[in-house]
Amino acid sequence: MLAVRVIPCLDVDEGRVVKGTRFEDLRPAGDPVELARAYNDQGADELCFLDIGATPGSRETMMSLVGKVSEQVFIPLCVGGGVRSVEDMRRLLHAGADKVAVCSAALRDPGILSEGARMFGSQCVVLSVDAKRAGRSWHAWRNGGREDSGLDAVEWAARAAKLGAGEILLNSIDRDGTKAGYDIELVRTVAEKVPVPVIASGGAGTLGQVLDAIREGRADAVLLASLFHEKKMTVGDVKAYLKEKGVPVRW
Amino acid sequence: MIGIVDYGAGNLRSVRKAFAFLGKDAVILDSPEGFAAVDRVVLPGVGSFGYAMDRLRERRLFECIGEWGASGRPLFGICLGLQLLAETSDESPGVTGFGFFKGVCRRLPGKKVPQIGWNSVRVLGQDPLLAGIRDGEFFYYANSFYPPAGAGVLAVSDYGIEFAAALGKDNVSGVQFHPEKSGPAGLRLLANWAGSC
User: Are B117 and A197 a contacting pair at CB < 8 A?
Assistant: First the structure.
């Protein structure tokens, strides 16, 4: 039986892990390689690294840290942030990433999804959707949550899956870092619409909320950041709870 | 020495890093010349069946691998690499595989394809490849197609349908999941295959 994945997310700026609230007020959260090793030891099913530093230097640092992590940690690594072209995807995959998350570049040119899938396989191509509520629906935002693309987030995710995205990393800007719970309605709407796995992200504050994202939201995987970085709980705590509730987890 | 076949699409770096972590030397094989220096061959894989076979022929690796397997030397396929060891695949009709395992690779049924994530594996029998692997252990998959379950099924997984997770027949074997991305259990499996080389 396929397990629901528990994925720690590391937002990296100039080689340091940071965490903010609603994509702002960034606070330092630790060393990426040390955290990666610790989460792996706790039973993480995958690791997600997002480069939020906008500089070329930050990008180079990300390459070398992905290289280091992939020599020590043998679970899937998803890397994103500032990916602009298929060539950027290739460089990250060569550095040691197993999957590359694309956000703004795909909104500008959706062809990057089909081209990436053709060259590397759709299992390498993750569409990251930064979704923000707009009345009764959600819009997909770009540039780190600074600009509204105007596109409906759910329609965009469905179109991306058709183009070749193998997974949807679904971030709720409204819930990011708030610990107010995942946007369950958003997660469920996308999970029921797209034929590829959906990773719920943004807002995890309690174990019950994680369970809700899986049971009510029908997420295939859950992403957590603040709770792990602040050492409020371990990956093992989350998985033990899910297992007790009857959710299939890798144990 | 282990040789990892490079046909331009595989995830060979991850496989090499996993062997390095286990203290096993591995070299990349991107031309027929390299085969003389190795005693075990890994065929890794991501991408599509037809694309991989075209690249293998372009690089004159198709005949090398076929002869290698036929001569009784150890050959191990990972993910698409295992599917290439079958006769054909629905993914690329008309393209011929190596044929070490009889049958056709089929597309997974179900609503969410590709299968991406950790699936449990039921171990059948006691093949040395799976020594020390607990029945029900999880391995990481990323696949839309699965290999044929003829003779030599060593383990199975369930994704709407039960399919062969590991195949082995004499010197030729392979796994549909990614052992190089499956944590300690995956490393154990790679170490089992590599033996004392």
Answer: yes
